[in-house]
Structures are given as structure tokens and as C-alpha cells.
Amino acid sequence: MAAESAVPSLHRQGASVVWRIVKPLIAIAAFLALWELAPRFGLVDEVFLPPFSVVAEAFVELVVNGQLWEHLSASLSRALTGFAIAILVAVPLGVAIAWYKPVAEFLGPILELFRNTAALALLPVFILILGIGETSKISLVLYASTFPILLNTISGVRTVDPLLIKSARSLGFSPLRLFQKVVLPAAVPTIFTGVRMAAASSILVLIAAEMVGAKAGLGYLITASQLNFQIPNMYAGILAISLVGLTFNGLIVAVERRISRWRPTH
Q1: Where in the chain are the domains?
Q2: CATH class of residue range 77-214
Q3: Each residue's pLDDT tens digit, 169-224
Q4: One GO biological process from the UniProt record (predicted)?
């Protein structure tokens, strides 16, 4: 009897696992089906919005001839460099601002000024000062990525449960040990929220910068394809950006889970 009752239970568990995998894909499949069918049935102009299958063919062709990798590697190099520097700068700075009041009072006004200045508004300034080469693009990514990480780091450190801090101090924790064992682990989820926001911002501003002054990169690929009326290639570049964004987000979530293994999962 026990063995017989276990079989339906295993079937239910298997079906539940399959459904959890399939469910997020339903909306994507519906979107791609709409993309494929709308141009073919004349709901939109096929010249300006080719069917998904045509875009997929262009995507594969760009992969095979090496063009996509050339542009993708250029964009990834710029984005990852600026993004990594932003993490190295923003996390320690955010910790210092949140933990030491004099630092917050000194840096607060200037940070508020730049935080409310959009990165893309400063694109002409970066180009004028740093030129149209790699330095200006990496600097723009750095600027755009810094503030989401910085603000979330400040928020994460400042909102740590005071009872945790009091308990650790009552146990004789030194300030450094208190910070390592209590404050930083508690702030990790909020910090990673900022990191995920910064990853999206880095791709956004980089693509805009590559559309203005670049000879390689996904932004350049999209603009050049539009100007040459290679519309499937343009959409293939947009699709590549979406895949890069999804990959970035997935990697960051995986790292966060790895670091936060001590936290209960829901």
C-alpha cells in the first residue's frame, strides 16, 4: 500500500516541477507567436517588423559570420569594466556614508547633486572631455552604475535591525567584527538589489553611447542596421541586448544566492 500511494505522489511532484519550469515560458512563447503571426497576417507592416523567424535567421547568420560576437565582445568589455569599477567604488563608499556620520555630512550634498543628473544628459560632456574612445563609454557606464549600488548600500547598512547590533555589542564584538558578522550580511540583499539595477543601467547607457560615437558594439550594430535598412539585423541586435540583460541578471542572482546561503528561502 505504501509503495502504491508513493507512485501518485511522485507523479504529482514531477508534474509540479514541470509546471514550474513551463509556466514562465508561456508568456514568452505567446509573445513570440504574436511577433511571428502579426506581420504575416498584415496586422503590422512586415517591412518594419519582420516575423520572428526572419529575425532569428538574421541572428544566426550574424553569429555564423562572426559579426555578432565582434559587437557583443566590444559592448561586454565596456559594460563589465565600468560595472566592476562601480561595485569597487560604490560599495565601500556607501558603507562609509552609512556608518560614519561625518562622511555622510561631507559627501551628501555633492552626491545628491550628481544623483539627480541623468547619465545620458552628461553624454556630450563625457565625449567632449574624454573623446569618443573607450574611456568616455566606460566612464559613462561607471557613472550610471554607481548610484543604484551606492544608494542601496547606504539603505541596506542603515536599515539593519538595531536589536541585532545591540545583541552583537553585548557579546563583546569589536566594531570590525560587528561589521563583518552582522551588518554586512544583513545588508547583502539590499546591496544586490542595487547591483541588479546598476547592471540594467550599465547596458542602457552603453547602448545609447554606442549609438552616438562608436565603430563596434551592439548599439552601433542597431544604428548601422537601421541606416542601411537591414531591419532583421537591427532586431537581431535588440534581441542580443535582451539576452545579455537576462544573462547579467541571472548571474547576479546566482551570486547573491551563493553569498546569502545562510538566509532562509521562501
Answers
A1: 77-214
A2: mainly alpha
A3: 777 777 777 777 777 788 888 888 888 888 888 888 888 888 877 788 888 899 99
A4: transmembrane transport
